[in-house]
From TrEMBL:
Name by which UniProt lists this protein: histidine kinase
SUPFAM superfamilies: ATPase domain of HSP90 chaperone/DNA topoisomerase II/histidine kinase (SSF55874)
E.C. designation(s): 2.7.13.3
Taxonomic lineage from the root: Bacteria, Pseudomonadati, Bacteroidota, Flavobacteriia, Flavobacteriales
Top EC class of this enzyme: transferase
Length: 464
């Protein structure tokens, strides 16, 4: 709309100028200046005045708009986007032109603010990371940007120019700044009389007519030390967890046997000790202790294909060992332990020490889930799948596992307990994987959890 009005105003002015020129030409052709000069001058003056006014008006009309655009482009040239053009007064087409200029200034101003915010955000991120970064002008050595990690890794102060490093530490300067590392390289540098390994990479980039070099470094020694420390912490956590899980039932059973022996010594006539029970209890303590020692030796290779000490065992015998080992501890907590055996002749080929460790872990998880539950109970059952695979199930009536985390329970070091290490179920899964079996969990909140251990099917010629 503004352009149309501008075009209309321009056409009107051109038409007026055209008619003024035509009138002047006509007047000159018909007037006789020799016969009546004063009258002719009187007639020509208004025409000349109109012609002059029309030309002046057209010139000012066009020149002013070009002048406004020239001012705007001048401000763009010098990046002065703070100027505000008047939108309230003047010709309508000029007001529209000013409005467009202001919109452009406003947009560029907002873009600059966004770029500044992004720059600050990126700068903050680069300051927080452990990787050292520096960018500098190749010709002058002037530092464009450097983060604290770079200064810390090389033990240098704030830099304005890399010549400082060249003057103070020429060997370091040659290794880091002079040599090109187009791909990641490992270098050893001398920092404060100590050999330090660095992972380094560099790249050259262009900004306008200047060339810059970007160098990225990472201290390998400190990273490896930190990773090793974390790995040892996690390993110790796992070992402590499993040892405590085994020691707890051993301690409880030993305490029960000691109590019976003490009562038999003090009151032999009323508390005669059953030697078979005593022998069975001691045998359970012995076997679990041997299993604990074997586990300590085996754990470090659980993440590899390990040759297990496999043997065929009746599930009822496995349950009997677990009953002897766990029953005293569960009874002291008021938790009932039941066994449901569908087939007393069902056998599985397992490393009994490791599978006992799995069952102990799962039972202790059930004990934790049954805290605060009325009439808590844990049921160990066995059956065969449709395909004939032996299955051992551990079922409790505890609090259950929320749906949103049930898929995460086998992730190493994932735990919902404040004191938990998050390695019990992940370790169970590893042990079952070594047995070429699998473990499944089904749970309903406030109703309980069922954990199924599914073993591979024995061939006919392997069975008794």
């Amino acid at each position: 709309m503004a352009y149309r009005k501008y075009k209309l105003a321009l056409v009107i002015r051109v038409i007026i100028l055209f008619f003024a020129l035509t009138a002047l030409a006509f007047a000159i052709s018909i007037l006789d200046f020799q016969k009546n000069l004063p009258l002719n001058i009187v007639i020509l003056i208004p025409i000349l005045f109109i012609l002059f006014y029309s030309f002046r008006n057209l010139y000012r009309f066009v020149f002013r708009r070009f002048s406004e655009m020239d001012d705007f482009f001048e401000s763009v040239k010098y990046r002065d986007f703070s100027r505000w053009f008047n939108e309230k007064s003047g010709a309508e087409d000029l007001r529209e032109l000013h409005k467009g200029f202001n919109e452009v200034n406003k947009t560029i101003h907002e873009i600059n603010k966004e770029k500044e915010a992004q720059h600050l955000y990126l700068k903050k991120i680069l300051e927080l990371i452990n990787t050292g970064i520096i960018a500098y002008n190749i010709d002058s050595g002037e530092v464009l940007w450097i983060n604290d990690s770079f200064k810390k890794n090389l033990n240098i102060p704030s830099l304005k120019n890399i010549q400082f490093v060249k003057n103070r530490k020429p060997d370091l300067f040659d290794s880091v700044f002079v040599k090109n590392h187009t791909s990641e390289n490992s270098i050893t540098v001398d920092i404060e009389n100590e050999k330090t390994k660095l992972l380094i990479a560099s790249s050259i980039f262009q900004i306008k007519e200047h060339s810059y070099k970007l160098i990225v470094i990472q201290n390998i020694d400190s990273t490896l030390t930190q990773n090793e420390t974390e790995a040892w912490k996690k390993l110790l956590s796992v070992m402590t967890h499993e040892i405590m899980n085994s020691i707890a039932p051993i301690s409880s059973l030993a305490e029960t046997l000691q109590s019976k022996v003490q009562q038999s010594i003090e009151h032999p006539e009323n508390h005669q000790i059953d030697m078979n029970d005593l022998d069975t209890g001691i045998e359970s303590i012995k076997k679990r202790s041997e299993g604990l020692l074997k586990f300590a030796k085996t754990y470090r290779s659980l993440n590899k294909i390990t040759k297990l000490n496999l043997s065929k065992i009746l599930v009822v015998e496995l349950f009997e060992n677990i009953k002897t080992l766990m029953l005293p501890s569960l009874e002291s907590k008021g938790i009932a332990l039941h066994f449901e055996i569908e087939n007393f002749n069902l056998e599985i080929e397992i490393d009994s020490y490791l599978i006992e460790q799995v069952l102990i872990n799962l039972i202790l998880n059930s004990v934790e889930a049954c805290k605060g539950i009325e009439s808590p109970k844990i049921i160990l059952s066995t059956q065969k799948s449709i395909d004939g695979q032996p299955i051992i199930r551990i079922k409790d009536n505890g609090k259950g596992i929320p749906n949103e985390i049930i898929d995460d329970v086998f992730i190493p070091f994932f735990s919902t307990k404040k004191s938990g290490g998050g390695i019990g179920l992940s370790l169970c899964k590893q042990i079952m994987h070594l047995h070429k079996g699998r473990i499944q969990v089904k749970s309903i909140e406030e109703k309980g959890t069922i954990v199924s251990l599914i073993f591979h099917k024995l061939k006919k010629e392997e069975s008794y």
